[in-house]
Amino acid sequence: MSSPPYNALTLYTAGTPNGLKPVLILEELGLKYDVKPINIMTNEQKQDWYLDINPNGRIPALKDGDLRVFESAAIMLYVTDLYDKEKQFTYDYGTALYYEMLSWIMFQMGGIGPMQGQANHFRAFAPVYSAYGIKRYTDETKRLYGVLEIRLSKSDWLAGDKYTIADMANYSWTRGGPMLDIDMSEFPGVQKWLKRIEDRPAVQKARKIPDTGRSEEDIQKMIAGAKARVDALMGTAKDETVKDEL
What is the pLDDT of residue 218? Predict the structure, then answer.
């Protein structure tokens, strides 16, 4: 096996925040890559062939020749390490700015991703209505947005003075704040940062990958319907607050 880069990139992904993250850097670098959409609604990511690529059974995953990389941040780091030779969207390894960037990536991986993911679940996809779950995880998501606000109220970007994979990673989740009914006007620095990112042509293209045949408006309608379904469980036997009282 030769050393990477192999220049034979295949991305296995779906239209989720984590699925968007590696697409952003691939598009920004203008790399040639194949896309294999994974239908997470049918648990395609749990099939044996996919577990050979990502033993965790989650999207996204990347193959570059025979080499596999899984976990969204690992893919982004791999792509910049191997393909961003001019350091357009990263910093030189070992520098203070590199570790500042890495810190913000891990902030997303360990904070915003898990907390907002749980907020999304309880608000739109849970089989019960849980006022506690919705409040706990939405409040924590807002707290984390507040951490971003502290930085972005003083700087255009999270790490240093340029747009990096740290911004891409956090953007992919934070852009979904309104779907949790979070008032983004509480975070003006974050709002301006989101707009700067959304105006980038590569970002506009990335948001359409993979092509599922559904527009963002369709997805918003689907999520609104899912939230309404959860809200309809309030005050029924599937309302956890009711069950606690019985």
Answer: 84
